[in-house]
Design goal:
The structure is a single chain. The chain has five helices and 19 strands. The radius of gyration is 20 Å and the shape is globular. It starts with a strand and ends with a strand. The strands form two sheets. Strands 10, 11, 12, 13, 14, 15, 16, 17, 18 and 19 form a ten-stranded mixed beta sheet that branches. By secondary structure, the chain is of the alpha+beta class. Helix content is 21%, strand content 38%. Residues 296-302 have low confidence and may be disordered. Helix 2 packs across helix 5 (282-292).
Length: 308
């Protein structure tokens, strides 16, 4: 029996279809808060169909990218007709997923295998990649960040892996009453009617925080480890450079890169962007909160420094 479900993530819709037994309720647990009973056939970003034959997705394309991170390896093949095939290899060395995408990213087929942890990596990565590619033309960014909600606004903390994004979020939660975690790894930014919003997503890293929730963005902060706490407003190219590295994108795809550039430009023109040199302490969180909630315009004030 074939099952088909629709999900609303970041205000966008996509469908997932598969035969009984291919995916379990546990496999899809993070996606449960995002499931909707409506079909939204005309508005769907994409439909992902799960199949049981990996050889049906063997590729004859050329390798476009071979990307490695702490979770595994992603190999992207491009076909002559512009379609893509993606192989996912878990950190264990097990090839746990093959995905074939149509040129416009609206239709995809995937085979998923491996042990439970490998399957979870495969499902999450497949859906994140599809979502990133298909939503890029809709003023949408999937961002690598930790995000908190405070007084009805979202604050995103960006930075390289190991910088302390999650630590800083938890310092807000521990020291600033009323703060809640929205997402700890991959929130979604969208521009809607000229306003910038941040959404929770099913992709929250190692933290079980899967909130189907939208709030206006209060500010973006790029973190840097330092022996002091200092926050500095950014504008223009510095603000652009603070956000770009955290945005998921196939930067070699011209149309996608242009769309991402356009969305980033809209974001940085609408919300304050900061750089925070910081220690992993409560003073850093309080300094950051005080600066972000003053509502001062970027570029009208200098940096604020506090040493430990």
């Amino acid at each position: 029996m074939q099952s088909k479900y629709t999900y609303q993530v970041g205000g966008n819709y996509y469908a997932l279809e598969y035969s009984n037994g291919m995916l379990s309720e546990k496999d899809l647990l993070p996606y449960a808060p995002f499931r909707t009973e409506s079909s939204y056939d005309d508005d769907k970003l994409f439909t992902l169909s799960i199949i049981d034959d990996p050889e049906a997705l063997a590729t004859k394309g050329r390798i476009t990218a071979d990307l490695v991170d702490e979770n595994g390896k992603t190999t992207i093949f491009t076909h002559e007709d512009g379609c893509l095939t993606i192989y996912l290899t878990a950190i264990t060395g097990c090839q746990c997923c093959r995905i074939h995408l149509s040129k416009d990213y609206r239709a995809a087929k995937a085979w998923i295998g491996g042990m439970p942890n490998e399957r979870r990596y495969a499902i999450d990565t497949a859906l994140m990649l599809l979502y990133t590619f298909a939503s890029s033309m809709h003023d949408t960014l999937l961002v690598h960040a930790s995000t908190v909600e405070y007084e009805g606004k979202g604050y995103l903390f960006l930075g390289k892996s190991g910088t302390g994004k999650s630590t800083h979020s938890h310092l807000w939660i521990e020291n600033i009453p009323g703060t809640e975690l929205l997402n700890d790894d991959n929130p979604i930014i969208r521009i809607i009617d000229g306003k910038a919003y941040v959404y929770g997503s099913p992709w929250s890293g190692k933290t079980n925080c899967y909130r189907n929730h939208r709030i206006p963005i209060g500010g973006l902060v790029r973190l840097h480890q330092a022996p002091f706490n200092r926050i500095t407003p950014l504008a223009g190219m510095k603000a652009y450079a603070a956000l770009l590295p955290s945005c998921s994108c196939m930067k070699w795809d011209h149309d996608m890169a242009e769309a991402i550039h356009s969305t980033i430009s809209k974001v940085i023109s609408r919300i304050p962007i900061y750089a925070l040199d910081c220690l992993p302490n409560s003073e850093a969180a309080i300094l950051c909160k005080e600066e972000l909630t003053t509502n001062l315009m970027v570029g009208t004030h200098g940096s604020c420094v506090r040493k430990s």
